[in-house]
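Subject: Protein record for review, amino acid sequence with backbone structure tokens
How to read it: Take the token row as a discrete description of the fold.
Enclosed: The protein record, placed directly beneath this head.
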Amino acid sequence: MWQSDEYYLEKAIEVSAKSRANGHSPFGCILVDPDGEIILEQGNVQGDERRCTGHAETVLMERASIKYDKDFLWNCTMYTSCEPCPMCAGAVFWGNVGRVVYAMSEADMIELVQKEEGENPKTLLFTMTAKEVFAGGMKRIKVQGPYASLAEKALEVHRGYYK
């Protein structure tokens, strides 16, 4: 049974908190099927696996593309704690998920990292939005976010991580 976008975003933020607790970057996402069931969840794994492509959304899409066909995935929604970076947006595009909803923006993330790491941050981020990446593709993936009501909660999981 379908819940609200806020409900699923809360679940994605919980996954990001688990990711941080497990020693990874605090990002998380879930995949919801057309019936509203959470069918996959994923946190970042780049830390201990030393995978530069170990972002939560990219790993989830790798798993989803093996398990489900593209027609099914087009009717699914990815909920993520933070706006997908260009690599992750590309994985969503190629994996064929039709809708992405995120809690906090990449701009929010950049602002936090600059505050915690200073003028020359070690954590490099893109300023290109997921909407810009999807707009360059030949299909129309629906994108919603940021959600002001949950952006602060999503950011809270990151606070102190980049110091």
Q: What stands out?
A: The chain is about 45% helix and 15% strand. The radius of gyration is 15 Å. The longest helix spans residues 5-21.
